Amino acid sequence: MRLPKSSAAMAAAMSVVLAAGAQVANAADTVLRFATINAEQTAAYKDVLEPFARKVGVDSGDRIEVALKPLGGYGKPADLFAMVERGEIEIAATVQGYSPGRFPQSSVMELPLMYETAVSGTQAMWKLYQEGMLDRDYASVKVLGLHVLPPYGIFSAAMPIETLRDLRGMRVRTPSPTVAMALARLGMVPVAMPVNRIGNGLDSGTVDAITYGWESLTITGGAGDKQLVDQVKILVDAKFAAPALMVVMNKSTWEAMPADMRAVIERHAADLTLGSARLRDEGEQAARDRLRGDPQYTYLALTPQIRTEMEAAIQPAVNHWKAAMARQGVDGERLYARARELARPFHTASR
After folding, report:
1. pTM above 0.70, yes or no
2. Is residue 289 part of a domain?
């Protein structure tokens, strides 16, 4: 039997209403916009951030949707922390160094020769946070994770490096002002340069060498159609220093969430800290082993004697950092001593 036109129209309208109702019923109670500095093809995005977003959704019974977008999806990397503070996005995975002077306490983890693996450095940093020694840096946000990258090597385009004396006068790209101070104490000329200009800097001779990660060296584009790894010849396994990173959430959004939903997020947040560190260490070791065995490169590791000499040479930079902390009302002496104390046993345990 055919329905009258008016009845058919009513049935169609009811179908639309029911479908809309089903969509509303399935919609998440909370949508968390999650921005990151990681590109979509990186391991950090695919193996850490995407699983976190997925697990939070499933564990919350789809009450939480983590709307993750890769590099540039919500804004420029340097703007992400401020966007979280203002509530323009809810979560960001970014680098403290993009906000110069904003994270003085956390800069202790960027001091040279502080730790030897991302895991040992990350465990030390997280313990500092738990002990309240990084309280000023993150008072305006909810911290979901803090971690560090594996300490960088020093890679030269042509100039040979066998002793500390060979570093003198080299123009070296530096990742942060803290690292720059130490490089200067070793006689190098630090040059601030964004990642996208490193290749051209090496090609033009603006810099002679770079402090950078082993894995990043193999996947970062250089000058023209080259990779950075194609532009260097001398690989020094210095384990020098590297940036700290964070995953932070808008504080008001966090405090407004029900306790059971906050528990879901915190349950999976551990992967944003140690999960990231382990992934970075694995990638770093694989890249180091691969390049070390490649005859087109000269691989050099710091001997214990050279490392001791380097520690002595950079001590004035550490003292300068402590004085700068004191001027900001931070007990740099205590913070530095505690960070060193924490990083060493964690390093032994992670072997």
Report:
1. yes
2. no
